[in-house]
Write a structure and sequence with these properties.
It comes from Xyrichtys novacula (Pearly razorfish). The chain is mainly β. Helices cover 0% and strands 47% of the residues.
């Protein structure tokens, strides 16, 4: 009896692209209605002195296990306060007319947290403030910024990226409209300058076409070799491929490669299917090999914090006998869009082969 080989690809992440460990938090007002929403990634680089009089730098990110105790919502001013491990990160918002902005970010960190600051010479709590460039956000829209924004204060570096944030939420419902940061908006070419004519006569010249700069393209994704086997058991899956992920939102398109050199592999073996889980610095992907070859995505859309009602599925049939290897002669590409969404996902496997054992 033949066994069929194929897979389902499941993307998991906190934010649309540059998949990483986004933190999602909400704050309700006195009437228990949503007033602040945020989904963001924050990385910190904090220098400190060690007990042996040497210097070190603690690098860490905002963890997923946080609270919002101490946050406030008022008609003209609000504060999102995120607490984690004895540290706090907060942002103050003010509303003026039909626009709001983030006035100041305050980061307090405790050197007594030896897991983050090993061998620190002090147990003091330090506080630094940052001036973010989150301005002119239209009321009842969600501020979006996928680009990295690094701010420095007193030698402490803070990097925000993959930010979705809305303050002064009306009627307890997040907006479906977006105000994008400047870094996410493509630069436009200024219109040509028109000069007044003069009486000077110049010799005719042969028109030349200015050189064009090609659009940068990603290199071919590196080929990774992955094995799934139970502990003290025999391997049930062998896979070898390069992987590229693309995301189109409206007219904007972004893509990235899975870096096989920084990717760890795990998984599990089943009777009718086997799973391969790949985790890198920027994404987490699960591939399930079963009797249908398809791609599923559960990444959020650009709507502020709203998930698609169901993950899209794009199927491509493929079959093989036990222990056989499929080596496509051309890249396998899956493209699909969640129903009612402007977001389009694409996944491409290059030089792919896999074996179910």
């Amino acid at each position: 009896m033949h066994r069929y080989a194929a897979f389902v690809l499941l993307l998991t992440s906190g934010v649309v692209f540059q998949l990483s460990h986004g933190v999602e938090v909400t704050v309700n007002d006195g009437e228990d209605k949503l007033c602040i929403f945020a989904n963001l990634t924050v990385n910190f680089a904090v220098p400190y002195e060690k007990a042996d009089n040497t210097s070190a730098t603690a690098e860490f990110e905002l963890p997923s296990n946080v609270t919002t105790d101490g946050s406030e919502c008022n008609p003209k001013s609000s504060m999102l306060k995120i607490n984690f491990g004895g540290h706090t990160w907060s942002v103050n918002f003010t509303l003026s007319g039909e626009k709001y902005q983030a006035d100041i970010i305050t980061f307090s960190y405790s050197l007594s947290d030896k897991a983050v600051f090993p061998d620190a010479s002090s147990n003091d709590t330090m506080t630094v403030t940052f001036k973010p460039e989150i301005t002119d956000v239209v009321k009842d829209t969600c501020y979006s910024c996928k680009s990295r924004d690094t701010i420095q204060s007193d030698m402490v570096n803070q990097t925000l990226w993959n930010v979705l944030m809305q303050a002064f939420v009306s009627n307890g419902s997040k907006s479906e409209r977006i105000t994008s940061c400047r870094a996410d908006i493509p630069a436009t070419t200024p219109p040509p300058t028109t000069h007044a004519p003069t009486t000077t006569t110049v010799a005719p010249t042969t028109p030349t076409t200015p050189p064009t700069t090609p659009t940068p393209t990603l290199p071919t994704p590196g080929i990774g070799k992955y094995i799934v086997k139970p502990e003290n058991g025999t391997a049930c899956l062998l896979a070898e491929f390069g992987l590229r992920i693309g995301l189109k939102l409206g007219e904007k398109y972004q893509e990235m490669n899975l870096d096989s050199n920084t990717t760890s592999a795990s998984g599990k073996c089943g009777v009718n299917s086997s799973e391969l889980v790949l985790v890198s610095d920027t994404m987490s992907i699960m591939l399930t090999f079963t009797n249908v070859l398809s791609f599923q995505s559960q990444t959020p859309t650009s709507v502020c914090g709203r998930q698609p009602s169901a993950p899209p599925t794009c199927a491509t049939k493929s079959r093989t006998t036990p222990s056989a290897t499929i080596s496509p002669s051309s890249p396998l590409t899956f493209e699909c869009s969640p129903s009612g969404s402007r977001t389009r996902f694409s996944v491409q496997l290059k030089n792919a082969s896999w074996t179910l054992i």
